[in-house]
Amino acid sequence: MSTDKDRVLIFDTTLRDGEQSPGATMSHSEKLEIAEMLDEMGVDIIEAGFPIASEGDFAAVSEIAKAAQNSVICGLSRANYKDIDRCWEAVKHAKAPRIHTFIGTSPLHRAIPNLTQDEMADRIHDTVTHARNLCDNVQWSPMDATRTEWDYLCRVVEIAIRAGATTINIPDTVGYTAPVESADLIRRLIAEVPGGEDVVFATHCHNDLGMATANSLAAVDGGARQIECTINGLGERAGNTALEEVVMAMKTRSDIMPYFTEIDTTKIMAISRRVSTVSGFLVQPNKAIVGKNAFAHESGIHQDGMLKNRENFEIMRPEDIGLSGTSLPLGKHSGRAALRDKLEKLGFELADNQLKDVFVRFKALADQKKEVFDEDLIALMRDSSAEQANEHLKIKLLRVVCGTEGPQSAEMVLEVDGADQRVEATGDGPVDAAFNAVKALFEHNARLELYQVHAVTEGTDAQATVSVRLNEDGTIATGESADTDTVVASAKAYVNALNRLIERRKMGRVGYDEKSVSYKDVG
Ligand code: KIV
Ligand code: ZN
């Protein structure tokens, strides 16, 4: 029988570590929406952002704190009083607030603020004490713990515990550790650091060597009882531990991993799709648990085996993660109720006015395509949400001339901050012409780093999903769109990325630069 000591807390950092990933910036309303979904699916702790990073981050964390019903709401702060005070100001509205403060403890990271071991130890003592005087739920992290000298790691963990930290998080910041080491590290810290048995140890793994999930689960074997993770493994570089992977691994292999979480796994697919849409990071088709092919059985042998007994090739049931079974496509005669029902099965819950808007789009699509498959509806939903978030630029009209005789041309009407502007542009192909039209109407220096086209389904009437990545002096923004007309999808994806870029420009976030703040500087 499982007891509370087998319970693993799920700490989701999609809105902080995930959103920090270049190009993954979410708008304010998108952050609130994702937080609500995390809260509803049973995530124990939501790291809602880094409040000192910008006014926008602060506002998002405070609003999430006010709205959360069940989850603990946590904010991140560097090891200085000003950050910690700002973090507290944002999270204090929550029913259950938490301050998370961190400092890089490895030799490489100590060199950044240029602190000796003793100076850093004093700073940890002072800042954790300061946080604990504000909030009785304090998490402390020695960043780059897995490359910190063992003796020093034990010393600083003990200092943080004595100063009042209630959770000690052990980050594998650069994805350097391996499962055996990950388990051993936590086991030894709990056993050897005075007070280690009285706090919760957490594991926070990055996926640089593709071992984040394995390392997190190994840390649980070593005694960690909090896993830090993100939806779809979103995060910098190769990302963070994927929530869906650790949760489903513990559920599916409870025979060898006798732990449990309070996550409602049937909500996994819906939140995975939503995070993919709002972050602009597509999920790779063969991604574990949430990839498009994770439950697809293409080969004849597999299909035959599945028909005889699904357990031949399935270790999890698709329903357990919120995937509906095989479903019939919709068509132009399908009504609003059928559309609502289908969307709900796909994890989209819409208010009546939203359904009205989506229904109009659905009818337009069904006029172009005989059969509207689940994948089409998912693409349509992503598209409509990206367009709703566009506050600056909107395409009102696009007409292109293409063919074997060049140059190709595009006529475009673009709404720029409320005013319609018209232009005709030429280019090397219709997509180039359409992009040139956008550039003529909205001047910018962003470089097109990625342009990718995928067919959503089979057939020549299939929708094309286009992904675009822009880079303006290191500020990255992605955009995505789908349409049965590839040129239209391309232009819309480009405009979606530009809208995000404009938002990113406004954010002007601070990074983790430790030199910029004196640590006793009270805000
Ligand atoms: O990876 C890391 O070390 C972090 C810390 C800020 C906890 O994200
Ligand atoms: Zn991290």
TrEMBL record:
- EC number(s) on file: 2.3.3.13
Q: Which GO terms describe its molecular function?
A: 2-isopropylmalate synthase activity; acetyl-CoA C-acetyltransferase activity; manganese ion binding
Pfam families noted in UniProt: HCS_D2, HMGL-like, LeuA_dimer
- Pathway stated in the Swiss-Prot or TrEMBL entry: Amino-acid biosynthesis; L-leucine biosynthesis; L-leucine from 3-methyl-2-oxobutanoate: step 1/4
Q: Which InterPro entries match?
A: 2-IPM_HCS-like, 2-isopropylmalate_synth_dimer, AIPM/Hcit_synth_CS, Aldolase_TIM, LeuA/HCS_post-cat, LeuA_allosteric_dom_sf, LeuA_bact_synth, PYR_CT
Keyword terms: Acyltransferase, Amino-acid biosynthesis, Branched-chain amino acid biosynthesis, Cytoplasm, Leucine biosynthesis, Manganese, Metal-binding, Transferase
Q: Which GO terms describe its biological process?
A: L-leucine biosynthetic process
UniProt cofactor(s): Mn(2+)
Q: Coiled-coil segments, which residues? A: none
Catalyses: 3-methyl-2-oxobutanoate + acetyl-CoA + H2O = (2S)-2-isopropylmalate + CoA + H(+)
Domain (Pyruvate carboxyltransferase) ranges:
8-269
Q: Binding of Mn(2+): at which residues?
A: D17, H204, H206, N240
Which parts of the sequence are annotated with region: Regulatory domain?
A: 394-523
Subunit text: Homodimer.
Which PANTHER family does the protein's record reference? 2-ISOPROPYLMALATE SYNTHASE 1, CHLOROPLASTIC-RELATED, HOMOCITRATE SYNTHASE-RELATED
Q: Which family does it belong to?
A: Belongs to the alpha-IPM synthase/homocitrate synthase family. LeuA type 1 subfamily.
Q: What is this protein called?
A: 2-isopropylmalate synthase
Organism expressing this protein natively: Candidatus Rhodobacter oscarellae
Organismal lineage: Bacteria, Pseudomonadati, Pseudomonadota, Alphaproteobacteria, Rhodobacterales
Q: What is the name of the gene encoding this protein?
A: leuA
